[in-house]
Amino acid sequence: MRIAQISPRFYPHIGGVETHVYEIAKRLAKDFEIEVLTTDPTGKLPEFEEIEGITVRRFKSFAPREAYYFTLDLYRYLKRNSEKYDIVHAHNYHAFPALLAYLTKRNKLVFTPHYHAHGHTFFRNLLHKPYKLIGKRMFEKADAVICVSNYERELVLKNFNVDVSKIHVIPNGINLEEFKIAERIKRERDRSFKKILYVGRIEKYKGLDYVVKALKYLDNFILEIVGKGSYKQKIIKLARDLGVLNRVRFYQNLSREELVKKYAEADILVLLSRYEAFGIVVAEALAAKTPCIVANESALKEWIDNKNVFGIDYPIDVKRLAELIRKVADISVEDVKLMTWNDVAERIRKVYFKV
């Protein structure tokens, strides 16, 4: 069976959707002929390469503020070649490559929307309203829809009235092998100060500004930020204005080994995002035995157990957040049952055979 995975971006880029596609593709490539069709707005990556048994084709795109990923080249390719694939598996409702998969459908279409119902800016929210009309057709034409959380499933049912029989809930997974070194790293790390970790895009809706504000009340803490995005300069300015910039560290383009080390070295991960379809960084932090604080919003609230993951409500009270960080940073994570990427790939394989 020949299968195309369509994603706005792919490895070596790091992000929730990118990680999801990379992890399932390399596992499914053991049983199927897998091609990843993706975009490269930088023009710096190879147009064609083989990665761990996966054929990767990259197409030029225009991605203002790393969004949308407009690409005529991918559209032209799919127009000519879509019928060659038994299944086209499109990812990410919030970017245009998935729309191109719908427009050029010839055989079976599987859709993983990673949907959280909102744009990340006022302008993007405006675009969501007319786009929703097209989005409804995308869901109708899909032969199967895979949601990564029950929260996402309910959103899809509410906003698009999808036939419930074709929706499958398959959470994101964890590669547990790469986290085996976490306990040793935790034992050996410097204990003279405590580390707050943030991993993800640096955008306003992620709530990172509240964490920076909380640093004013956390003298022996530093904040490590792994990621990039349009809100980075405002975070830097905020930290400078508050006099805490010397306790904020920025990292990007880390290898998986470096990222796992960051998870393991951290005393706490904080994610105050208002819009998440799953929250894969929470799963990865827990795999590294690092406790978490999350916003009591979107799919993140499904993680809250008040043992390993603690919630905080919007509007965020910064002093309360600081108190919660201080408390949770001393907690030892209990065993958490996490789905592996092998489990995820097996369940997706079953969906493919069903359609």
Overall description:
With 355 residues, this protein is an alpha/beta fold. The protein has two domains: 2-173 and 340-354, 3-Layer(aba) Sandwich (Rossmann fold), CATH 3.40.50.2000; 176-328, 3-Layer(aba) Sandwich (Rossmann fold). The protein has twelve helices and 14 strands. It has helices at 16-28, 72-81, 96-103, 122-141, 150-160, 182-188, 208-214, 232-242, 256-265, 280-287, 318-328, 341-354; strands at residues 2-6, 33-39, 48-51, 54-59, 87-91, 108-112, 144-147, 167-169, 194-199, 221-226, 248-251, 268-271, 292-295, 309-312. Strands 3-4-2-1-5-6-7-8 form an eight-stranded mixed sheet, sandwiched between helices. The chain has a six-stranded parallel sheet with strand order 11-10-9-12-13-14, sandwiched between helices. Strand 7, helix 5 and strand 8 form a beta-alpha-beta unit. Helix 7 runs parallel beside helix 8 (232-242) and helix 7 packs across helix 11 (318-328). The longest helix is centred in the middle third of the chain and has 20 residues, at 122-141. The two termini are 12 Å apart. The relative contact order is 0.12. The mean pLDDT is 93.
What is the total number of structural domains? 2
CATH class of the largest domain, named: Alpha Beta
Radius of gyration: 20 Å
Which structural class best describes the helix and strand composition? alpha/beta
General shape? globular
Helix proportion: 25-40%
Q: What fold name stands as the CATH topology of the largest domain?
A: Rossmann fold
- How many strands in all? 14
Give the N-to-C terminal Cα separation. Answer: 12 Å
Q: Per CATH, which architecture of the largest domain?
A: 3-Layer(aba) Sandwich
With helices defined by DSSP (H or I, 4 residues minimum), what is the helix count?
A: 12
CATH superfamily of the largest domain: Glycogen Phosphorylase B
Fraction in beta strands:
15-25%
